[in-house]
Design brief:
alpha+beta; six-stranded mixed beta barrel; 54% helix; elongated
Length: 341
C-alpha cells in the first residue's frame, strides 16, 4: 500500500497501523475470514432454504398441475370401456374440465444403463384437455412443451439423475417389458418424477390400448358445493374407489414446509452464535499475543476508546471481508441443498 501513493496519502495513522497488522498476521486474517465466511454461508443458506421451498406448493399445484380432484377408478379400462363413466363426469356441471387418465410406475434407465430412477407414467386420453390439466414447460424460459406421437417428456430432476438431455434415448419398463424412446422435452416439476406420453405413442410402443385408471377434474368457478361434498357424492359411485383432493395435498405440503421454520431458525441462530464465538476467541488470542504492543501504545498516550478501536477496527475489516466471501459460499451452499432436496 505504501507504493500506491494516492491511497497511502489519504490514510490516517490508525488506518495505516490497521493495514499493517492485517497484512502482518496472515494466519489470523485467514482464520477470521474463513470463520465468518462459514457462519455467513450458513445464515444465507437458512434464509435461502426457507425462501426457496416455501413457494413449491403454489408453483407445483397452481401453475404446473392444475386439476382439483383425482378420482381413482375401481377397475381400469380402455377409453371406449370408460366412455359411459366419462359422459357422467362431462354431464356434471360442477366440473369445468374432465380428463380420463392413466398413471403407473416404471423404472427408467439412460442409454448405457449406468443410472436409473423410478417415476410415474402419465397419459391423458385427450390432448386438448391434457394441456388444461398439466403445464409442460421449460423451467428457465417457460417455453411451452407439446407432446407428440414420436417420443416422451420427462421431468427435470429425472433428467439430472439420468444425466440425459433432449434428443437422448432412454429405456423403461411397462408391465415388465422393456421399451426405448427418445426424450422430446424436459419439463419443470418440483414434487415427484413423471414421464408423459400420448395414448397413440403408448399404443405404438406396446401394441396395446391404454388401460385408464383415473379421472382428473377441474372444478367450475361458480359452484356452491364444497370439494368434500363432491367427493362424498362420487364415492357412492361403484366405479370410483378413492378421491384425492388437491387442496388437501397443498395444505399437507404447506404444513410440512411450516415445520422447516424451526429448522431454519435453529440454523440461523446457531450460525450467528458460532460467529460470535469465532470472533470472541480470535480477539482474545489477538490481544494475548499483542499485550506488550497494546501496553506500549497506551504508554504513548492512546485513550481506552482509541486502544479498543485499534483492535476492533481490524475485526470489523476482517468481518466485512468474511461476510462478502460468505455470501458467495452461501449462494453455492443454498443451490446444493435445494438441488439435493
Amino acid at each position: 500500500l505504501e507504493h500506491i501513493t494516492p491511497i497511502w496519502k489519504h490514510m490516517n495513522f490508525t488506518s495505516k497501523v490497521t493495514a499493517r497488522n492485517l497484512f502482518r498476521y496472515k494466519a489470523r486474517f485467514l482464520m477470521t475470514v474463513i470463520g465468518v465466511a462459514g457462519c455467513t454461508a450458513l445464515i444465507v443458506a437458512g434464509f435461502g432454504l426457507k425462501g426457496s421451498i416455501s413457494v413449491i406448493a403454489d408453483r407445483q399445484f397452481g401453475e404446473i398441475t392444475k386439476y382439483d380432484e383425482v378420482f381413482a377408478l375401481t377397475e381400469s379400462g380402455t377409453s371406449s370401456e370408460k366412455a359411459y363413466l366419462l359422459s357422467h363426469f362431462h354431464a356434471n356441471d360442477r366440473f369445468k374440465s374432465t380428463l380420463l387418465g392413466y398413471q403407473g410406475s416404471t423404472t427408467v434407465y439412460n442409454k448405457n444403463k449406468s443410472n436409473s430412477i423410478g417415476l410415474s407414467i402419465v397419459i391423458g386420453d385427450d390432448q386438448k384437455t391434457f394441456k388444461k390439466m398439466f403445464e409442460l414447460r421449460e423451467r428457465k424460459s417457460h417455453k411451452q412443451l407439446s407432446l407428440d406421437d414420436s417420443g416422451i417428456i420427462i421431468t427435470e430432476r429425472a433428467s439430472d439423475v439420468l444425466k440425459i438431455k433432449v434428443g437422448d434415448t432412454i429405456s423403461f419398463t411397462i408391465n415388465d417389458d422393456y421399451y426405448t424412446s427418445t426424450v422430446k422435452g424436459i419439463t419443470e416439476n418440483y414434487a415427484g418424477n413423471y414421464m408423459y406420453m400420448t395414448p397413440e405413442y403408448y399404443r405404438y410402443l406396446t401394441g396395446k390400448e391404454v388401460e385408464y385408471n383415473m379421472v382428473m377434474t377441474s372444478l367450475a368457478d361458480d359452484i356452491s358445493d364444497t370439494e368434500e361434498d363432491i367427493a362424498n357424492d362420487w364415492m357412492k359411485n361403484d366405479d370410483v374407489i378413492t378421491v384425492t383432493l388437491m387442496s388437501e395435498k397443498i395444505a399437507s405440503v404447506n404444513d410440512m414446509l411450516k415445520s422447516l421454520d424451526i429448522i431454519v431458525f435453529v440454523m440461523i441462530f446457531c450460525a450467528g452464535l458460532l460467529a460470535v464465538i469465532v470472533l470472541y476467541n480470535l480477539t482474545n488470542i489477538n490481544i494475548a499475543e499483542r499485550v506488550r504492543e497494546i501496553a506500549t501504545i497506551k504508554v504513548l498516550g492512546f485513550y481506552n476508546r482509541e486502544t479498543a478501536n485499534y483492535i476492533y477496527r481490524e475485526n470489523l475489516v476482517l468481518t466485512v471481508v468474511g461476510a462478502v466471501v460468505g455470501m458467495f459460499l452461501g449462494s453455492g451452499l443454498t443451490y446444493f441443498i435445494i438441488d439435493t432436496i
